[in-house]
Each structure stands twice: as C-alpha cells, then as structure tokens.
Amino acid sequence: MSTGLLLMIQKSQASKVVKVPALAESITEGTLSRWNKSNIISGEFFLRYEVGDFVQQDEEVATIETDKVDAPVNSPYTGTIVELYAKEDDTVSVDQDLFKIETGGTPAEETETTKEEAKEEPKVEKEEPKVEKEEPKKEELKEEKEEPKKEEPKKEESKERKKELKEQEKIPSPSPPKTDSKSATTLYGDREDRHVKMNRMRLRIAERLKESQNTAASLTTFNEIDMSNIIDLRNTYKDSIMQKHGVKLGFMSAFVKASVFALQEIPIVNASIEGPDGGDTIVYRDYVDMSVAVATPKGLVTPVVRNAHLLSFIEIENAIAELGKKARDGKITIEDMAGGTFTISNGGVYGSLYGTPIINMPQSAILGMHATKERPVAVNGKVEIRPMMYVALTYDHRLIDGREAVIFLKTIKEQIEDPRRLLLSI
C-alpha cells in the first residue's frame, strides 16, 4: 500500500475526543443519566451505547441530568465510539472528556464485528461445562478413598453426641424468636424496602422549596369563585376555537388574563425583594412573565409564558400547551424556565379541593387553583347549586400586606365570575 493511501486513511479515520458541552448559564456539572441508543439490530432493542457502536453526526449519544432539565449530548462527528470516559450515574463537569470517536467508517463495519463476536461467544460457553463436570469426579474419587480409613473416629463422635443430646434434654432451650419471625411474615406478608437515590431535579426542587419556607414570611389568604359564567363561555365557544385555531379552550387562559389584570392593578404582588442578607431592595416590574406549574415524571417544573400581558386568550392557551408538552417530553430547557414574575399552580386537575401553595422564589406570591365542585350557595337570598372553586394566594408578608393580598385575590374572583370584565378591563 502506498504512503499516500495510508495518509488518506489516517485523516479519514482520525480519533476525536468529545467533551461535555455547556449545559446552561450558572450550571457547571450534571449527572450522566444514560448512554442513549435507538438502533434495532437482529430484532433486539438496545438502549445504551457501547464501545464499537457506530453513530451519525448530530445523533444523540448521551443525556446529562442537571438541576432543572435533561441536556442531550449529540455527536459532532460520524464514526465509531472508541472509548467512554464516564459511566452512568457519574458526575461530569463542563469541558470534561466524555467519549472518544474514530471518525469515518460505515455502519456495515459495526454489523460485521457484531456477527463475528456472536459466532465466537458460543464456543466459550460450550467449553466451560466440560471443565465443571471433570473436577467433581476427581474430588469424589479422593473422598471415596479417604472415607474407609476414618471409620473409628465416627463411632467415638456418635457416642459423644448421644451424651450431649441427653444433657440438652434436661436443660430447657427457649425458642420463641423463631416462632415470632414466622408469625410476623404470615401476618404482614412478604415486604421489602427499596432505596432509590433522588435525581438532581428532585434534589433541587427540595432545596428550593425549603429555601422558600426559610426565607419568605409566607401567609395564605383564600376565596371562592362561582365558575358558572366562565364555564358557559367555554362551552359556547370551545368548538369554534378548536376549528379555527386548533387549540382547546381551558380555564388557565382566563386565570392568566385575570391575574395579569390584578397584577397591573396591584403592582407590589408582581415585585420581588433583592439584595444581600435577605434583601434590602424592592424590584418593580412593568411586565408580566407568568410561570405555570407543570407536573412531570421527574418533578414539578415552572415554564414561563413571556409577556403574558400582551397575549390574547388563544395565544396564552397555545403557549401553555407547547410548554406543557415540552416539559412532559423532557425537552424543556433552562431558558424556558428562567425568570417569571408570578406563578399559577393548578392542583384542581388532580382533584385537589384545598391547599396552600409554596412561593416560587424569588417571586413574592403564587396563585393556587383547585377543583370545581358543585355546592349549595346563597344567590340573591336563595339557595342554589353552583360550580364553585376555592382559590388560594400565598404571599410574602415581608413585601405584601394583607390588604393588598385580599384585594388582589378578590379582583381575580370578580374577573372570573364576570368574564366581560376581562374584555372591558374593568
């Protein structure tokens, strides 16, 4: 082979080291949750990449779990994985070596090597049992030769054991622990404890919630809303909105619009405390970035609807639907959750009747929605059955007084009970 061809092969199959990419602002490390793979070979589904696997450029190779999101790691080259520098569940930092890839080649090379390995593996499996069968035979022969020589000691041992047994019969031997353990298993059945390490997102959520409780002077005020008019509005126009805009009309858009109006009327609820030693400065905002709590398999996340004060009902519903889908699919990014001036949490979708939400720091308040239930209420001196919802506002009493909190929640109540106010801004 000529030297020119060798140089061309070396250039086309050069080894490259792929490092951990930048995860997000202020995040310097994460946990390697898994090596991804989605190739189907010989009818089997492989979930993890291994040394020798072929990858395409921009193919997702690994997933790194951070405090807030799962960050994918894509291969910048097409080639074969030569070496993995980290194992699953290892902590990796930005710019750390993650894996080595030999660029070039084709997927056919991978299939040929796997076929050769598959042919060689059964040969090893057939040889092992033969060795296991031969060894016991030699040991048995040795034991058979040695046993006749040791007949007399056995007789002496049997006489001594008889004496010991007679002495043990005279002494009472307590055995309640054995019966207790058996009775315990029959009473409670087979049970076990499973210890599972908390993922980074759950740890971060726990840390943030505890930080909120330790920092804010949290207080909760309650009210109830007659949902009759907003339900009628939704039932009247939901089909038309679906046909024209392709989005379901829910209650979240109405509560976002009502909250935006209340925040503009009482701007202190949209403010926050910043500064050293717990804060010494109030930051007022003339815009509303609405955080919406979304439950995911890994924990609660709060993606942000930007400039909610400029959006219509339909635009708000579209934004919430897109962010919710990204969160449930694990594709939410740090940028989707950064910021936020006020949060709405809707525990009513799970049937919650009453609750006190925890403030999403550094915000100063959070609105909690709950389930709509039919209850008897007094209307114009008469008892009527109406669909009612309890709402809760948890606020930081360091910044927001009780008067502002009560008026804020009452404003939301008035907007929802008479949706015409949302259109007239009154």
Automatic annotation (TrEMBL):
Its EC number is 2.3.1.61. InterPro entries: 2-oxoA_DH_lipoyl-BS, 2-oxoacid_dehydrogenase, 2-oxoacid_DH_actylTfrase, Biotin_lipoyl, CAT-like_dom_sf, Single_hybrid_motif, SucB. It holds the Pfam family Biotin_lipoyl. It is an enzyme of class 2 (transferase). SUPFAM superfamilies: CoA-dependent acyltransferases, Single hybrid motif. Residues 99-194 are annotated as: Disordered. Residues 112-170 have a biased composition (Basic and acidic residues). Gene3D superfamilies: 2.40.50.100, Chloramphenicol acetyltransferase-like domain. Keywords: Acyltransferase, Lipoyl, Mitochondrion, Transferase, Transit peptide, Tricarboxylic acid cycle. The keyword Transferase applies. One of its GO terms (biological process) is L-lysine catabolic process to acetyl-CoA via saccharopine. It comes from the Eukaryota. Residues 15-102 form the Lipoyl-binding domain. Its main location: mitochondrion. Its cofactor is (R)-lipoate. GO terms for molecular function: dihydrolipoyllysine-residue succinyltransferase activity. GO terms for cellular component: mitochondrion; oxoglutarate dehydrogenase complex. Coiled coil: none annotated. It is found in: Mitochondrion. PROSITE patterns: BIOTINYL_LIPOYL, LIPOYL. Pathway: Amino-acid degradation; L-lysine degradation via saccharopine pathway; glutaryl-CoA from L-lysine: step 6/6. This is dihydrolipoyllysine-residue succinyltransferase. It comes from Rhizophagus irregularis (strain DAOM 181602 / DAOM 197198 / MUCL 43194). The lineage of its organism: Eukaryota, Fungi, Fungi incertae sedis, Mucoromycota, Glomeromycotina.
